[in-house]
């Protein structure tokens, strides 16, 4: 179990790096949306991201329902992040 836990911890660190990188793009999207007036929760884009999550999960042997649930939460947090940034000066 020790070896398994070490690998899970390594993957968690890698995931955090990727999520931090993703977060910078969410901020950049908010900055662009401030100029264009686009809403943070554009429904066609939400659907596209969820469809991508399901497809990417399937392509990698992961349960698409699990991936969609995870991504729904990620999108909720990302939309909140964009909204907060849009509401800043």
From TrEMBL:
Chorismate mutase domain segment(s): 1-86
SUPFAM superfamilies assigned: Chorismate mutase II (SSF48600)
Record's signal peptide: none
A single BP term in Gene Ontology: chorismate metabolic process
Presence of the UniProt keyword Iron in the record: no
InterPro entries: Chorismate_II_sf, Chorismate_mutase-related, CM_dom_sf, CM_II_prokaryot, Isochorismate_pyruvate-lyase
Keyword Isomerase belongs to the record: yes
SMART domains the record matches: CM_2 (SM00830)
Pfam families: CM_2
Keyword annotations: Isomerase
UniProt enzyme class: isomerase
EC number: 5.4.99.5
UniProt GO molecular function: carbon-oxygen lyase activity; chorismate mutase activity
Annotated protein name in UniProt: chorismate mutase
Organism from which the protein derives: Flavimaribacter sediminis
